[in-house]
Amino acid sequence: GDVIHRMLTATQYIAPLMANFNPSYSPNSTVQYLDNGTVFVVQWDKVYLQGKEDLGSFTFQAALHSNGRIVFGYKEIPVPVLQISASQHPVKAGLSDAFMVLNPSPDVPESRRRTIYEYHRVELDTSRISSLAAVEFTPLPTCLQHQSCEMCVSSELTFNCSWCHVLQRYL
């Protein structure tokens, strides 16, 4: 989106491993990305934890596929993630989404108050993150995948949606 706010970055993320990494510590450390039109991959290669460089380097990646599938791959995790300190930076792994609403402030009518609503989060069990491990997120079927009334009516989704003839889509 076009709104950047410090709290949004804490609640909107796709994070194979979020910690206090320092990519500038070593000339061999890189953060690279690739987009071939069907998959977008970001790789953190040989990155070190700030102030804990003696623990070794981490190499991991996130792959976002055009069909909605997300894969986290862990090549090199030199220490258990549970041992990484969260005192300087949160340690997280998973997915989170949120949105921000600007509401008029009751005290000052011309100003707006920002309210952030986190509506979904998937947290990985960080004790399971290790070298040569992978995690795959597969999207569940939704209303939006149906392109016709017939597909909508015959679907076996478990939530209450219906076809809108005016909009020509499932709601």
Automatic annotation (TrEMBL):
It comes from the Eukaryota. Its main location: membrane. GO terms for cellular component: membrane. It is found in: Membrane. InterPro entries: PLXDC. It is a single-pass type I membrane protein. Belongs to the plexin family. PANTHER family: PLEXIN DOMAIN-CONTAINING PROTEIN 1 (PTHR13055:SF10), TUMOR ENDOTHELIAL MARKER 7 RELATED (PTHR13055). This is PLDX1 protein. It comes from Ploceus nigricollis. The lineage of its organism: Eukaryota, Metazoa, Chordata, Craniata, Vertebrata. The gene is Plxdc1.
